Every structure is written in C-alpha cells, then in structure tokens.
Amino acid sequence: MRNLSGAAVSDSVRHTAHDHTTDAAVDFSLGLPPRTLAATAKRDALTGDAAFSTTFRFKSNQHSLLSKYDTITNFASSDAIDARGVRSTQMILGSDACVEISGLNAKAIAAECCTKAVFRANDVCAFTVAGMNGTFVVLNDSRAGFQAKQDAVVFLAGYSVTDTQAIHIV
Ligand SMILES: [Ca+2]
Hints:
Layout: E1 2-3, E2 34-38, E3 44-47, E4 53-57, E5 70-73, E6 80-82, E7 90-92, H1 106-112, E8 124-127, E9 134-139, E10 152-157, E11 167-169
Parallel strand pairs: 1-3, 2-4, 3-5, 4-6, 5-10, 6-11
Antiparallel strand pairs: 7-11, 8-9, 9-10
Calcium ion (CA) is lined by residues 140-141, 143, 145-147, 150-151.
C-alpha cells in the first residue's frame, strides 16, 4: 500500500455544474487552494486535507479495481474524484446513491446496486456496506452493469453522501 497523502501537486480543478442536479448545495467559493493526488495501479491510501480542495485522480478504472480498491480518508464535499476518461463532470447525491448492499463483493454490487438497468455506460454510483463506515463510489466503463475487472471501486472512509453532502466526479 502506498500512502500518497504527502504528494500534493498543484493543479487546476474543474468544478463545474453537473448534468442531473439542479440544486447543488456544495459551495466551492470557499477558496481553498486546489491540489491533486493521483492514485497508482496498486492499492492506495489517499488522504484529504481540510486546508485544500483535493482532486483524487484515477487515470483509469484499473487504478482502483474491487480486488485492490483504494481508500480515501478525510474526503470532504469540497473535494472531487477525477475519473478522467470515464465520465464528464457530475455529482452523486444521497438520492442517487444505492441503499446498503449485503456485502462487498462483485455479485452483491452487480445485483443490488449497479444493475445493467441503472448503471449505464460511463455512469457513476455509490453504495454502503454494513459494518463499514463510509461510502463506496463505483465508476463504470463503457459497458452497462458492474464488472469487477473493468469498473473502479473507491472507498471514501468515514464519508456519508447526502443531498447536501455530495461526491463530485470531474
Ligand atoms: Ca461496466
């Protein structure tokens, strides 16, 4: 596991309006300086910092597959996940997220949250798992439904998504 919390790199952050939310409650006008942390292909532990607006960059879905998913701690609603090459800017709100699923495994994710009917190509979603404090974000590829070897899973430890506390995907 690599801990990348110290590897701040200045970058411009693309916080723009998203496609299916009209009542975005997140305020980026706080003026926090931006920084970027890039995930590696290994299992990473990434850490947010209240002094920054951090963009956590996933160059591809292979950078956080279910078998070696990355964990972000101290994620805040002023942060963002950069799923570059996966999807344009959007936002996950509590009303977009799935209910708790029965376990952290590909079968449960595919059947109880990221079904082919709702998890469309290049879509994103979120779910929780009993006994794990935090929220999982799933980044789809171009194929509907969840496939563990193609779609990314990122754990936001200790973070709950609500309609006023979103997850920005840029
Ligand atoms: Ca897929």
